Amino acid sequence: MAGRVLVLGSLNVDLVTRVERHPRPGETVLGEGLRRLAGGKGANQAVAAAAAGADVAMVGCVGDDAGGAAYRARLEARGVDVSGLRTVEDTPTGHALIAVSDDGENSIVVVPGANDLLDEREVAAVDTLGPGDVLLVQLEVPRTVVCTAVRRAAGRGARVVVNTAPYAALPPDVVALADPVVANELEMAALAEAGAEPRSLLVTFGANGAAWDGATSPAVEVAADEVLDTTGAGDAFCGALAAALARGDERDTALAAALAAGADAVRREGAQADPEL
Ligand code: RIB
């Protein structure tokens, strides 16, 4: 029987506009259109894992606003268990201000809102995990909470996948418990500079594929004119990877599924499939 995937992380309302090119510091450019889309690295990964067939629970916080209510309903409609999703009073749901340029590249400013308020209550959800289950975390919520959850899940025999996005230094024991740490090239460089020693390291290289403990896999090819938006491609990768690992897939199979999900993600607009909030 497949294990469960528990995603502890952020949920954001993404406010997205398209730009011909990104502004330089101090410069103003005009954007075209403004969409409210479902985002946040945690929820993006949860939705991707659910789309890949996993039994998924999302643990995190939203505010007591329209965005938070819409997000809860959205996850429920996708079969994601939201019993560990807390609504925080008098606090806005997290937001991300995103500009996407014509070549599909994005720039993102995150305003954390309720994502900053995860605490011991969210960590407690990890106590439902056991061998065969997967805890998937990123670093868009308080690091102390992430670290405690990782230690607790690993102590219960669950597999832990740590996506080091956005990059922040982690204690050596947390890095060593992850199987794997998932990092992009910049995060890998930061990990190396910090002297981190992952037990298992999966590095993503965008269009150039990925390497898991040095074994490389090519990306699924996507023609340049098919790349609409790279936002959330890494999240789709992580969600599909966690789903495959919870199913018991071998590394090669899991990595192939993750690369395929990442490629699909760049062909659509927004960080999730059907992202309108
Ligand atoms: O990884 C993409 C995500 O980063 C966006 O959905 C945005 O909300 C930020 O969290």
Keywords:
277 residues, alpha/beta, UDP-N-acetylmuramoyl-L-alanine:D-glutamate ligase, nine-stranded mixed sheet, 8 helices, 13 strands, binds alpha-D-ribofuranose
Give a verbal description of the structure:
With 277 residues, this protein is an alpha/beta fold. It has a single domain, classed as Ribokinase (UDP-N-acetylmuramoyl-L-alanine:D-glutamate ligase, 3-Layer(aba) Sandwich). It is 31% helix and 26% strand. The protein has 8 helices and 13 strands. The protein has a 9-stranded mixed sheet with strand order 5-4-1-8-9-10-11-12-13, sandwiched between helices. Strand 12 (210-212) and strand 13 (215-217) form a beta hairpin. Helix 7 (233-247) runs antiparallel to helix 8 (251-266). The radius of gyration is 17 Å and the shape is globular. The two termini are 33 Å apart. The mean pLDDT is 97. The structure holds alpha-D-ribofuranose. Alpha-D-ribofuranose binds next to strand 2, helix 1, strand 7 and helix 7. Residues 10, 12, 14, 39-41, 44, 96, 108, 110, 140, 231-232, 234-235, 271 line the site of alpha-D-ribofuranose.
Give the gist of this structure.
The chain has 277 residues and is of the alpha/beta class. 31% of the residues lie in helices and 26% in strands. The chain has 8 helices and 13 strands.
**Widest beta sheet: strand line-up:** 5-4-1-8-9-10-11-12-13
Mean pLDDT: 97
Structural class based on helices, strands and sheet pairing = alpha/beta
The largest sheet is:
9 strands, mixed
Bound molecules: alpha-D-ribofuranose
CATH topology grouping? UDP-N-acetylmuramoyl-L-alanine:D-glutamate ligase
Annotated CATH homologous superfamily: Ribokinase
- CA radius of gyration is 17 Å
From the spread of the alpha carbons, the general shape counts as globular
Q: What is the string of SSEs from the N terminus onward? A: EEEHEHEEEHEHEHEHEEEHH
